[in-house]
Write a structure and sequence with these properties.
This is Histidinol dehydrogenase. The protein has about 280 residues and is α/β, with parallel strands linked by helices. It has one domain: Nitrogenase molybdenum iron protein domain (Rossmann fold, 3-Layer(aba) Sandwich). It has a five-stranded parallel β-sheet with strand order 5-4-3-6-7, sandwiched between helices. A four-stranded mixed β-sheet has the order 9-8-10-11, with no helix packed on it. Helix 7 links the parallel strand 6 and strand 7. Helix 2 crosses helix 5 and helix 3 packs parallel to helix 5. About 0% of the residues have low confidence.
């Protein structure tokens, strides 16, 4: 018999209603919707959807056998800062977990002011809700994918501890934003042996690659999807834009990939070595 997920009931007062997601979809610029859908397609095509549990056996002529087991972690908590400005970066954080086959995904929107019972939110929050809906992580009777929660900092720690009680320690926490004040959570995670991904906590700047002749780079699209990233360099005749190890060229201005966050991050690998009989 399928075990009921108590997290969904114990923290239901922080869960958003379907009305909030419907409002977000209707109140989001169609250009943003289009870029988010394109980013989803790019990620699925590039990474590919993984099998939650898989084994591979290789026999070597040197007289040994290696059996590799890959298994998705049981849960992932995404802590999102209030008014996080980039829905496409948020989306690119969620998708590797989904593609890895993580069964229990929790989005904790960290806010001291927003009311979970609201029917509408700011434009920035609407973009995050839309991204959540487009990847299928909205409220549902299907408990394999969890809904979006809006909660203050003091409740995030409670949720984390409840998550461990519910699912065990085979999970991860990811921080989305550079203004999250959840140091206690990082310390507690370390004590529990839970990995924390914090790439998004540093401010990002973009280096503009300038072309000598006019190009078709769509700077407007880049600014639409990355409104908080400061441009370093000339903004006329752009050839491409580089943010850390990611370079975006013409036609990919509104896309995002985290270069250090792949589906494999959400999988554990066990290698078994044996001798050939």
């Amino acid at each position: 018999m399928h075990k009921k997920n108590s997290l969904l009931s114990n923290f239901s007062q922080f869960q958003l209603s379907d009305d909030a997601f419907a409002s977000a979809y209707n109140n989001t610029d169609p250009k943003i919707r289009a870029w988010l859908k394109t980013c989803i397609a790019r990620q699925y095509t590039f990474w590919g959807e993984k099998i939650p549990f898989q084994t591979e056996t290789k026999h070597f002529r040197q007289g040994f056998v290696v059996e590799t087991e890959l298994e998705a972690i049981d849960w992932a908590i995404f802590c999102v800062q209030d008014e996080f400005p980039s829905s496409v970066r948020f989306l690119a954080t969620l998708l590797p977990a989904i593609l890895a086959g993580v069964k229990n995904i929790y989005i904790l929107y960290n806010s001291e002011k927003n009311n979970p019972e609201s029917k509408s939110f700011s434009e920035t929050v609407n973009h995050l809700l839309l991204a959540t809906e487009l990847v299928g992580l909205t409220s549902s009777s299907d408990e394999t994918q969890a809904p979006f929660f809006v909660m203050p900092s003091m409740q995030v720690m409670n949720f984390f501890r409840a998550c461990i009680n519910e699912h065990g320690k085979h999970g991860s926490i990811l921080f989305v934003g550079d203004r999250l004040k959840l140091d206690d959570l990082i310390i507690e995670s370390s004590k529990q042996g839970i990995p924390v991904w914090t790439y998004g906590m540093k401010k990002l700047n973009a280096i503009v690659h300038y072309a000598t002749s006019e190009t078709g780079f769509n700077l407007e699209a880049f600014k639409l999807m990355q409104p908080d990233i400061e441009l370093k360099g000339k903004v006329n005749h752009i050839e491409s834009i580089q943010i850390d190890q990611l370079v975006l060229k013409t036609g990919q201005e509104g896309i995002w990939f985290w270069t250090n966050l792949q589906p494999e991050y959400f999988q554990t690998r066990i290698m078994k070595l044996n001798s050939t009989n």
